[in-house]
Amino acid sequence: MNLADLARVRDKDLAGEASAPETRALMHAIMSEEREPVTVTRAGHKVRRGLVLGLATMAAVAAVAVGIGLVGGPVTSYANAAVSIKKTDGYFSVNITDPTADRRSFEEAFRAVGLNVTVKVVPVAPSDVGKLIGPIVPGGFKWHGSIGTQTIRPCSSAFCGKVWMPADFPGRVVFGVGRPAEPGEPYVDEGPLAPEGDEALSGYTSHGKTVADVRTELSRRGLKAGYRLVWQYRDGGDGGTSWFDEAVPASRIKNDWIVASTRFHSSDTVDLYVTPGKDAGPTPSPHPEPQWYDMPD
């Protein structure tokens, strides 16, 4: 048995770390023929190991020691059963292996490499399962550099991508990890809306058709309809126009109003993004709806 292969750590990766007391105790327990019990104290709590360390247990102990960092502070890479993260000069490389894992497993990995990250495991469409959603900065990103995510293909895991953000950003960042939605459960979708471009129905163009026409097509496919009015308003900043969408009941929608685009709301419901007709009344003031990253854990 090659212990170096089990831990996947080279000598140069631990250069200067072997003098830490907990490291010496850990390695002594692994290498000792008698398999003496060892207690590793870290961050105010104790982890006790039994008299006999099996193959899987020894690998797990070594992984914990390497992942957390033997001399304190953030590390450059970390992996657990849910995700692996590696820090480089310009970004963090993230591979998600288990999108259904508890959110604390993801947060553990992000925080190990020095990021103040909250993770929410959220329901998504089948095509988005396992993907990393975000990053979202609830208070707005006001710092040097930039922040964002880039998916990498091909990928042998559920998600492979690059996350770039300043390693010294002091604010709170929220990520979502997509899990399979239950039947009828609303999807989380943080992608920007294209008011005249999104099409939910394969082989059917909803843009430019009346609400009545699109509703008929949904019925033919055994799907229900949800409704969102797409409002335009003048942006006081530069004199241009902006828009927002508002969820409304079916009673607010007229059959002859025009559909701008469609998106799946859940496995059995499609949202129609509708341009308000001339009798829809004045444009209301924008009022943001609660988002997935605002919800309590």
- How many β-strands, per DSSP? 14
Adjacency order of strands in the biggest sheet: 3-4-5-9-8
Structural class: alpha+beta
State which percent range the strand residues make up.
25-35%
Q: Which regions contain 5 or more consecutive residues with pLDDT less than 50? A: 1-71
Give an overview of the whole structure.
Helix 2 (21-31) runs antiparallel to helix 3. The chain has helices at 3-7, 21-31, 55-68, 103-112, 211-220; strands at 39-42, 45-48, 77-79, 83-87, 92-96, 117-124, 132-136, 148-151, 159-164, 173-180, 224-234, 241-248, 258-266, 269-275. Strands 3-4-5-9-8 form a 5-stranded antiparallel β-sheet. A 4-stranded mixed β-sheet has the order 12-11-14-13. A 3-stranded mixed β-sheet has the order 6-10-7. It is globular. The protein contains 5 helices and 14 strands. By secondary structure, it is α+β, with helices and mostly antiparallel strands. Strand 1 (39-42) and strand 2 form a beta hairpin.
What topology does this entry show?
Layout (H helix, E strand, L loop, with lengths): L2 H5 L13 H11 L7 E4 L2 E4 L6 H14 L8 E3 L3 E5 L4 E5 L6 H10 L4 E8 L7 E5 L11 E4 L7 E6 L8 E8 L30 H10 L3 E11 L6 E8 L9 E9 L2 E7 L22
Parallel strand pairs: 6-10, 11-14
Antiparallel strand pairs: 1-2, 3-4, 4-5, 5-9, 7-10, 8-9, 11-12, 13-14
Helix pairs in contact: 2-3
Quick gist of this model?
By secondary structure, the protein is α+β, with helices and mostly antiparallel strands.
Give short descriptive properties of this protein:
alpha+beta, 5-stranded antiparallel β-sheet, 297 residues, 4-stranded mixed β-sheet
